[in-house]
Design goal:
Helices cover about 40% and strands about 5% of the residues. The protein has about 140 residues and is mainly alpha-helical. Among the domains are: about 30-65, no CATH class; about 75-125, no CATH class. Helix 4 (about 85-90) packs across helix 5 (about 95-115).
């Protein structure tokens, strides 16, 4: 492997074409029915569901919307759980490990259905499977 191929690029390629833009500061509501911490797929879905049910909702995130883990690793779009199935079984037992794995797959399916139902213009296409390297040791595998 040549030296120029050993550098890990941490910025997602899609941020180069569509950089994160800053949002204007806005005053916070003094009272809401539900405050959600985290503007990833799960937080935004929860906020949308609650708002449509008539609740006042505020969603907060440490970073800019679209800047967190979901934009780097795909979040629930992969349906994967960080621990492999064998480790889940060892840690929680077969039944619970199977339930955790199924929950990840169900979350991914829910996202696909939401993209279609909301008619989100996000160029989403299901194509194969991607397994990224989490660190230098994973690279050779």
């Amino acid at each position: 492997m040549s030296a120029e191929n050993t550098t890990l690029k941490c910025m997602p390629y899609w941020w180069e074409a569509a950089p994160i833009s800053s949002l204007p500061e806005m005053p916070l509501d003094r009272r809401v029915d539900v405050a959600i911490i985290g503007a990833g797929y799960a937080g935004l879905t929860a906020g949308l569901t609650l708002a449509r049910a008539g609740r006042s909702v505020a969603v907060y995130d440490k970073q800019h919307p679209g800047e967190g883990a979901s934009s780097r690793n795909g979040g629930i779009t992969s349906g994967n759980i960080r621990l492999d199935h064998a480790t889940l079984v060892k840690k929680f037992g077969q039944e619970r490990a199977d339930a955790i794995t199924l929950e990840g797959k169900d979350a991914r399916q829910h996202l696909y259905e939401m993209i279609a139902a909301e008619e989100l213009d996000c160029d989403f296409v299901q194509v194969g499977r991607f397994g990224g390297a989490l660190g230098a040791n994973d690279y050779e595998r």
